[in-house]
Amino acid sequence: MIVDNFLGCRILVVGDVMLDHYVRGSVQRVSPEAPALVLQVLDEDWAMGGAGNVAANIASLGGTAVLLGLVGKDPAGAILRDMHAEKNLRIETRLYCQPDFRTIEKTRFLAQDRHLLRADRESLTMSAEAEAGIIASIHEAAEGCAAMVISDYAKGMITPRVVRAMVEAAKRRGIPVIADPKQPNFSYYRGCTVLTPNRKELAVASGIEADSEEGIVAGMEIALDQFCGPIVLTRSEQGISLFRPGALPLHEPASTHLVRDVSGAGDTVVATLSLSLAAGETLPKAMTIANIAASVAVAKSGTATVTAEELAGALLVDAEPARREEKLGTLSLAYARREAWRREGLTVGFTNGCFDILHPGHVKLLKAAKAQCDRLIVGLNTDSSVRRLKGPERPVQVEGSRAVVIAALNSVDMVMLFEDDTPMELIQVLRPDIIFKGADYTVDTVVGSSFVHSYGGRVVLVDLEVDQSTSNLIARARMPQPQPQPQQSEVVH
Fold this sequence. Notes:
CATH superfamily of the largest domain: Ribokinase
Strand content: 15-25%
Number of domains: 2
Structural class: alpha/beta
Number of helices: 17
């Protein structure tokens, strides 16, 4: 699954780093001193905002972020420098300190999920010395990275020289640059691989309101002429769109009905897009994945991050969050679950297959397997894997649908997709106590049998249901059906 490929991807994030400060409480009355609400403060917390939130999302999704930004010699800067270590995030911070720079800090006052007020502290001037230091750090920090992100919040750090340094460093290494723009003309970012504005930023750059389809199309013509490359437009509740010079646009609708807070959703899109491209996905597919990640982010309160497990569940099925987290996940999640079950002394079984059209033979196999173990993990071949094994006309059901059906069975405790032709990697990572396969195999021909025997595990063969297979079902469905003969009408003499 694509989320597994995020693990180990290093992404360089360069941009305006901010400290997001949240003050939460309840409102019960109006101040007697002025017509203003009184917030009874209950708690407060801090998070990395701006480019820092892009880095936090990359880390949360399984990648490693190298964060390059500018802070001042002040308490907010100190909090930002220490924050990633405290939260055990996979973020390498390379924050350049300009002593007279005021670290950007945004304080949001909230009652439940309702924003009451935001107070900003910032300075917008980066010194020439700081700019030179940032540019020197770009070339050094880019080493070993699979993609780069420009996170521009128009706070003074993303200068033309910084953009040029990013583009040059990326071209030298053959990696993509994803730019989240704030400048009033998109030609500022020429040379980058893809741009990710929202509708407001498109309107500013094009001079045309982007609150209708006609406005977006007209504005995008100007934007594409400025940037000379593909643009992924985030459209809030309307989803996301990909515009490319000389090509028809692609649209993805928003995939959530719950919108609690849109703060930082654009950062989630940029983070997911960069990881997907770094992992080898095409731009259209990367956009789809980023759109689904954003749907997870906006359902949370505050500047939220999205985890690899949340994204994996959302990619597999549009279901309730509890079901996603309960049964569908990545190899990393399956490993964590397997270790927890091991600590509880539970016996863990494993089986795998295409499970294309679920039939009684599948149900019997899974039920018999679960009867002999405490927890059963099912490895499910991806669509591309099924095509290689079964031919170009298979699978009949796409991988997401197959995963949902298997996860719905009481006998199954976890479902995970795998891309390879065999589940050997899964077996080596999970080290199941028992491998279950149908009795059409022999123990010696079961993938992983030697490995599982090496640490005392077992292979169990389950008797198959007679005349039950997906291939037979498909063949019968394709057989021509006998046509009913027309009845002879009676003739009365």
